Amino acid sequence: VDECKQNSSSCPRGAICHNTIGGHRCSCPAGRKITKETNSCNPDINLIVGTCIGSSVLVIIIFCTRTIFERQKLTNVKKQYFQQHGGFLLLEKMKSDQGLAFTVFSEAELEQATKKFDKSQILGHGGHGTVYEGVVKDNILVAIKRCALITDRHKKEFGKEMLILSQINHKNIVKLLGCCLEVEVPMLVYEFIPSGTLFDLIHGKNRTLLHIPLSSLLRIVNEAADGLAFLHSYANPPIVHGDVKTSNILLDENYMAKVSDFGASILVPTDEAQFVTMVQGTDKSDVYSFGVVILEILTGKMPFKLDEHEQQRSLSSSFLLAMKENNLDAILDSQISEHECIWSCLADSQI
Fold first, then answer.
1. Residue 137 assigned ligand-binding role
2. What are the tens digits of pLDDT across the range 114-164?
3. N or C: which end of the chain has fewer CB within 10 A?
4. Level-2 CATH architecture, domain 195-351
5. Catalytic amino acids?
């Protein structure tokens, strides 16, 4: 006897009736079960919860596995960059030289120091990168430079160059405190210099507000010259700055000059064959650029003006033309031209 056909209400609504020998049984569709209290097919809570937990565990396992893989991959990339930039050689040299005050920072440390390189931390932009204000361990205020690019030659020699630059210790040179080598383009960590740049002093509002006397400006330039002379003559090996300009001459709290930004620095090669390949980047180029710095002080003008006539676009060309025409008063800054001892001051400053 087919009890399912004889009694259509033998199972709750939504259930499926199965005829058996001497009786019948009822079943619900997948994901549901018969509830005795309501005698109906209701969702199987245990099954749903179990499925959700199982799916969640599976997702977590996949996520964790992927995260571990990505971290391992990132770690390998960082190690590759670190090795590529001469990091291991630098560490060995640092161990052998116990007194060297130089730190190799991790990317995470510098991200934390700059609030993940937040725009609010930017001190300035340059042709070689962006400089951020940051606070590293022991609440030390620093300037962190993210370089824009690096040549293949510098990649191989970077660790070695950092070791040499870190040993430069002069009152008129910004101290290099450390670097980060586990990124594609290394980052440099310098001491923080609080009072802006010589560029700001000459071309900004500060010059008018502070009424900086000529003697102070010449003192600043003389201090910057001392810094450059140290790099050229007393550093071992000699170092060419390569990017001397007023924005790279910083001023401390006492308005003492400190030469900064060694992003373009070139360690002068000792091998003559190497030297022949260096068409640019000699101490003579630093001296020429420093001459332009002096002209900026004397004239209060920018080194280049693209909107001027071709002969007057370059400050150095304009100055030479004014000298040729015996018309220096026309190009000198009004505050400077009124200074009676302009040439004697220059002579006294040994510039």
1. no
2. 999 999 999 988 667 899 999 999 899 999 998 877 767 666 677 777 878
3. N
4. Orthogonal Bundle (1.10)
5. 243
